[in-house]
Amino acid sequence: MNCEQARPLIPAYADGELDTVHILELETHLPACPACTRALQELQQLKKSARQESLYHPAPAALRRSVLAELKAQTRTEPKRSFWSWLRLAPAFSGAAIICLAALLTVTLNRPSAHDQLTQELVSSHIRSLMASHTLDVISTDQHTVKPWFNGRVDFAPPVKDLAAQGFPLIGGRLDYVQNRTVAALVFQRNKHIINVFIWPGIAKTSAPATDSIRQGFNLIHWSQGGMTCWAVSDLNQTELLEFARDFAS
Amino acid sequence: MEARERLQTFEQTVLPHLDAAHNLARWLAGNDQDAQDVTQEACLRAFKFFGGFRGDNPRAWLLSIVRNTFYTWLRQNRPPVATVELDDEAFEIADPAASGEALQARHGDAEAVRRAIAVLPVEFREILVLREMEDMSYKDIAHLADLPIGTVMSRLARARKLLQKHLAREYPAGGPS
Predict the structure, then answer these.
(1) How far apart are CA A164 and CA A162, in angstroms?
(2) Which of B77, B110, B126 is the last residue of a domain?
(3) How many CA atoms lie within 13 A of A14 on its CB side?
(4) What is the residue range of B13's domain?
(5) What is the number of domains present in chain B?
(6) In terms of CB atoms within 10 Å, which end of chain A has fewer, N or C?
(7) Where are the alpha helices (DSSP H) in chain A?
(8) Do A58 and B19 touch (CB under 8 A)?
(9) Which residue range is the domain that position A157 belongs to?
(10) Is residue A19 within 8 angstroms of chain B, CB to CB?
């Protein structure tokens, strides 16, 4: 190794990011080369000087308190105002209030509330599975391990597929609880994204996967196959999630 | 109740990195008041998105939010700063004539180092802070800043070279004048 080859490796070496082969080569070169040794020493000196404790700015105690207070204030549920106290205000805004109320009622009545509830439950289950390190009850990338695991745990046999070849490896399964019943949840991974597929017996009619909704930034895709209702929930982008669902349903 | 549990988990996993968050914000913003505003805003954002956090590196996650919050804040509060064009003299030693003692002196002076880091262009400063003060790997920095790893390495190299130049100017080869 000569200086020209050695010099670019020095930063990675000083940062502990160099691979073993290059470390060995560089360490052979260094003792024989004062110029490179000097460059390394300068860099180490520079690193040391940037790491002085007095240059670090830890959070002031007041900031810590204020962050905590703000977070607590945000999680506190707002006290509910009673119906009568609202009614007392009504004369003040009667006209506007009535229009608003009418609009609100229309919106409320037109809302498919059962569907909303379901998608909300699915997203909550998905989030819970990510948070509580309770993503998996059975950890296996083998569909022939995951599928039998559901025997005796649910009263149906969910379709289980490994889609590793398509870039969505199966990582396991678990039981979940949605719409007042135990459902099967299969867990897949795409890069760093987790995909939960919730499955339970439902409509016999087969329908192709279609994007259902986006909730709290999570994509929901719905389809049915073999008499099962299936929902895929993930923070993965819509296109890829749809691709996944199509692979799963095919 | 669920919200309270969420807050508790957040306090245990994310808030231990408040010092790191503030340090990055302070080095980016350059003054205490703005740094605290950015840190506070970033923590609130982090809490909001906490449901979607699933990684194993809460510090890097929080720092990426601090960084985004800072750049959003910068766009809203400051006129765009002209990007500094830097010449790329490859692998040149900053100051070949400096003696060992001069080097010692220029690097040991925390105030001089602080000034030298503070005047680095922000895109170099942030990489240097993450690498040296937070001891983050190239890979983690690349992921955090959404940059290719090669860009992280070249920015780090430039940051160091500029830093060396600034320090060499404060402490010329013959020692402090």
Answers:
(1) 6
(2) B77
(3) 26
(4) 2-77
(5) 2
(6) C
(7) 3-6, 10-14, 20-29, 34-50, 61-75, 83-110, 113-131, 143-149, 238-249
(8) yes
(9) 114-249
(10) no
- Comparing CA positions, the residue from A240, A233, A236 lying closest to residue A126 is A233
Q: Which chain A residue shows the shortest CA-CA distance from B165?
A: A46
Cβ–Cβ gap B54/A130 under 8 Å: yes
Residue B54 sits in a domain whose CATH number is 1.10.1740.10
Distance from CA of A156 to the nearest CA of B (A): 30
CB contact under 8 A, B18 and A35: no
B114: contact with A, CB 8 A cutoff: yes
Is residue A7 predicted with pLDDT exceeding 80?
yes
Residue A67 in domain: no
CATH of the domain at B120: 1.10.10.10
Which residues lie closer than 8 Å to A38 by C-beta, 6 or more apart?
Answer: B93
Chain A hits for B26, CB-CB cut-off 8 Å, are: 57
Residue range B84-126, pLDDT digits in tens? 444 444 334 444 445 555 556 656 678 889 999 999 999 999 9
- A134 — contact with chain B (CB < 8 Å)? no
A27 and A149, same domain (yes or no) = no
CA dihedral defined by A13, A16, A19, A21, rounded to 10 degrees? 50
Q: Same domain for A129 and A238?
A: yes
Transcribe A163-218 into DSSP letters: BGGGTB-EEEEEEEEETTEEEEEEEEEETTEEEEEEEEE--SS-EEEEEEEEETTE
- Average pLDDT over chain A, rounded to whole? 84
How far apart, in Å, are the Cα atoms of A70 and each of A64, B25, B47, B58?
10, 19, 11, 20
Helical residues (DSSP H) of B50-175, grouped into ranges: 58-77, 100-108, 110-118, 122-128, 138-145, 149-170
The pTM assigned to this predicted structure is 0.56
CB-based contact B113 A49, cutoff 8 Å: yes
Chain A nearest C-alpha distance from B3 (Å): 6
Please write the tens of the pLDDT for every residue from B50-95. 888 878 889 999 999 999 999 998 888 766 554 444 444 433 444 4
Interchain pair B40, A235: CB under 8 A = no
Question: Residue A63 and residue B66: Cα distance in Å, rounded?
Answer: 15
Hey, is the C-beta of A127 within 8 angstroms of any chain B C-beta?
yes
Tokens of A100: 């608003």
Query: Based on the domain organization, do A121 and A36 belong to the same domain?
Result: no
Write the CATH number for A238.
3.40.1000
